[in-house]
């Protein structure tokens, strides 16, 4: 499978690198300029650009709008024990947008990176739980 690339506009590239490498097991694949880096986790390449950087990603649109951090689009990172992982991250002082939400497919929570870009931490429902729920709905 080809690598997946997602671009995030950030306030501070160095703070973003520290956040993703220290807390979410990313590695620095490239950091060719102070305002740009490529972080990698498995097949995911996270391209981070400073909102005031030299490259094309941070340039104003013809109507004057400028790319900025935040929003609601997000990457999803699957974890085995969401509750335990969230507790560890909270102890490290990290910010969450919400509390753990449980749905049909599993549990999730939204973690903000230093620039306010969301990361969805997701623990899938076990296959047994999913099968039981499906069976109950049919009856």
Give a quick set of tags describing it:
single chain; 139 residues; alpha/beta; 4-stranded mixed beta sheet; 8 strands; globular; Glyas_Fos-R_dOase_dom; VOC family protein; Glyas_Bleomycin-R_OHBP_Dase; VOC_core
Layout of secondary structure:
Elements: E1 4-10, H1 13-23, E2 27-33, E3 36-41, E4 44-50, E5 75-78, H2 82-91, E6 101-103, E7 106-112, E8 118-124, H3 127-138
Pfam family, one: Glyoxalase
Protein name: VOC family protein
What does this structure look like?
- The structure is a single chain.
- The protein has helices spanning 13-23, 82-91, 127-138, and strands at residues 4-10, 27-33, 36-41, 44-50, 75-78, 101-103, 106-112, 118-124.
- The chain is of the alpha/beta class and 139 residues long.
- Strand 6 and strand 7 (106-112) form a beta hairpin.
- The model has no long low-confidence stretch (mean pLDDT 89).
In short:
This protein has 139 residues and is an alpha/beta fold.
The computed structural class is: alpha/beta
- One letter per element, helices H and strands E, the order comes to EHEEEEHEEEH
This entry's quaternary arrangement is single chain
Fraction of residues in H or I helices: 10-25%
Distance between the termini: 40 Å
Q: What's the total count of β strands?
A: 8
Main beta sheet, described? 4 strands, mixed
